[in-house]
Structures are given as C-alpha cells and as structure tokens.
Amino acid sequence: MSGNNEGYIIDKLRASNSIAGGGGFPSFIQLETVNGCTARCVMCGIDEWSKKMNSNYMEDALFYKIADEIIENKESVNKVSLYVGNEPLMDKKIASRIAYFKENTIKVNFSSNASLMNEKRAKEILDSKIDHINFSVDGLDKGLYEKIRKGLKFTEVLGNVLKFIQIRDKYNYETSVRISVIKHKAYEKDMQYICNFWSKILDLKKGDSIRIDGLNNSISVGNNRSSEISLECAKLPCYVLWNTITIKTDGSIALCCVDQCRTFKLGDLHKTTIKENWNNNAIRENIKQLHLQKGRMGVDVCKNCIAWL
C-alpha cells in the first residue's frame, strides 16, 4: 500500500502543479491574518478553535517576516491563500497585505462570506490586484441561507457579491470569482436554478466558476465531521501534507486547514522560519509516513476527512 500511495501523492502533486519549484519550501501557503468571523455557520467549529488562539490579529512584524520569506522563495510558491478558517475582510489591512505579495508577483486568493464587502472594500481589494476570490453563498433561499449562515443577512450578502462583480466588470479588473454553494438536501431541487442564476452573472473569460460542495467537505471539528467517508477514500493519503503549510494568526503552524484546533502543534513562526519548519519537523514527517502506510485511517484527526481527494 505504501508504494501505491507514494504514486498517488506524486500524481496529485503533479496535477496541482506543486512539484515544480522545490527548494525545500511549500508550494501553497495558507496564511490567516485575523482570528474571527462575522458568521456562525452550522457546519463550522470556529467557537471551539478560536478560543485556543493567542492573538486576534496578526501583528505587522510577524506578517512581514512571513511574507518576506515567502517572497524570497517565490520560485517555489504556487499561491498564497490569505485565509484559513476565518473571514479575511475583518482584517482592515488585508488589501495592503495582498498588494505586498502582488508587487512581488505572487498569486493570492481568499475566501469570504461577503458580509463586509461594501463598495469601498471592493475597490480596495480589486486595486490590490488579488487573483481570485471565493464567495460562499449557499443557495438563493433567504430563510434557509440565514438558518445555515447564522448571523448573516442574505439580501445584504447577495447584494455585496453582485456589487463586487459589477465594479470588477465596469473597470475591467482581472480578478476571478468563484461562487461556492454547500449542497444541502433542503434546496437540492434548486441546484439547477442556482447554477443558471450565477451563470448569467459570472464571466467565464475571467475564470469565474461555481462550486458545489457537500457538507462533509466543510471545515468542522471532531465528531461534527461526516461519517459517510468510504473505506477506499480512508485508505488514501492526503497530498496536502506534501505541499501546503497552514499558518494561524498567532504564528502557530497547524497540520492543515481542517485541523483548526491544532491537534498537532507543528511550530511557531515567531521562533523559526517556514523553511526550517518545513524541512525539519518530526511530527509532520511521522504523519506523512502514517498516511503512506495506512492512508487517512492512520491518523485520528484525518480518518473522517475527504477534503483534497
């Protein structure tokens, strides 16, 4: 099984364009600059993991320390995602932080619930030259949306997304947009209508798209994860261990974006560098070996996860 899994990892890394570069540095950087969210979605465990953070906002000194190392190793970097399990627009400096990477020709994206995306913020974000934004907009049913995305107002969120796209198109910004919809049985019958609605608004020439996810692909915690994972999926390793580093607001390094509670404490970037941690972390190496030998079943926090298959 180990040999087969090694081949699976190589194929996945090749498909995600993350073999190129090398240099002992991760291809994908998940960098969270603010610990918080404007919503309390039913499938999200933010109240559990946010209590374990030592900082609500990433300080400038730490951000630029991390950013400068990424820029120094940019030949190995495919993309920087400026979010993990948070709402990135809560960071009032997010536009300037995006621009810092873009000035150094690094691809940047983030995912947002759009609750804070007013016209002023839209122009700031678009001016930063961000490559891609994912907006989480579940369905087009106001009542159901507000039951799932607790704390948000559907009409405001939809209006914010539409206004963002309108500004982008009016001034011909190149930023691509993806609309993410969590597939829920309550509006499964409306999926075609949802796709038709967004297909009239999105611009395929700019790389826009719609993505539909199951609830079991969402970020959640412990027993909240779906138990519907198949045995065959559980036998597969997660290739993210080989190409992605996940950095939280306080500089701590998580195993991945799903391990929000940081079951494994992989390091602190106040005390080390990305490259040092990436190349000399016994915990990560042990987990990688368990994945090669037993797949996701080899690690408790991974065994019910079907993200990144």
TrEMBL record:
Instruction: Note one Pfam family from the annotation.
Output: Radical_SAM
Q: Which domain of life is it from?
A: Bacteria
The coenzyme or cofactor needed here is:
[4Fe-4S] cluster
**Mind telling me which residue stretches traverse the membrane in this protein?**
none
Report domain 4Fe4S-binding SPASM positions.
Answer: 238-305
Which CDD domains would you find in this protein's record? Radical_SAM, SPASM
Q: What molecular function does GO assign, one term?
A: metal ion binding
Give the UniProt keywords, A-Z.
Answer: 4Fe-4S, Iron, Iron-sulfur, Metal-binding, S-adenosyl-L-methionine
Domain Radical SAM core, first and last residues per copy: 32-166
Record-given protein name: Radical SAM protein
- Biological source species: Helicobacter valdiviensis
Highest lineage ranks of the organism? Bacteria, Pseudomonadati, Campylobacterota, Epsilonproteobacteria, Campylobacterales
